Description:
Low-confidence stretches: 222-237, 271-294
Shape: elongated
Order of helices and strands: EEEEEEEEEEEEHEEEEEEHHH
Amino acid sequence: MPEIRGVGAQILVNNTPLEEYQVEVVDEKTVRCYIASEAGQGFAIKVLNNLNQETSCSIDFDGERMLHELCRASTSPVISEVPISKYESRPMQFALLNISDDDSLLEQDRNAWEKLGLIEIYFRRARIIGETGSMTRREVQPRGVRPVHERSKKAGAHCIGLGSISRNVRPLVFCKATYIDPPEAPFATIEFRYRPKGLLQAQGIIPTPQKNINESSKKRKADVDDIIDLTVPEEKEDLKAVKAQLQASIRQQEALRSRLNRLEGQKGEPSAKRVKREPGIHVPDSGDVIDLTV
């Protein structure tokens, strides 16, 4: 969990914290990191207040203020929905951008999407002075769900959207507070830069898995280790033994040829491989051929 000045935050998916990458302390009041997002995936924000007084958490999605949450001293509440009234809320989720070819969007995109892919949490120390009875119902439309021009170089990125309206189990309680820290100078800021995992890998923020390469290397090493070296060192060779083996091999080959020729002769088939001629036998000039096959 990125922490600074006694406060912290993390993004949860199915109650499990997302892994943070390249956690960086920007200055004495700001820390930021990267997380991998998945379109259609719901998430929640867990905030940590280790201070001995209340803090107010103002949360921006893609550069637009979406909600405020009071965090009492020494607590860590989980925020999973954006309230739209005292009785209704909408869950938070990562979403695909809505790409458009409307050229009128191109100029406004240059400024509007400067903070696309960014969750900002601003902590301000506060003092509760009472509760307010109700909240006027509001229509919430995150900036990220608005159309983006196809040439804005944002294609393939994610944004933050909201799910369907749900009814709160209990009415929400809203408080009035006074702030120690002004809006332009918050006590602390935590930034989460969310991107598709593949994009983070392409940018070198998440290491590319080396599993297959390592396994192949191990397999090749195992294959090499399984090879038995049958080479006999030259200094251990015996010249007489080698000659004896060669002579035995020659005699064995001659015996096999003799057996082969005899078997073929018994079948009445002339051998095409060897003709044995006895010494002193002459082939007549008349051209008659004498079959000397054994």
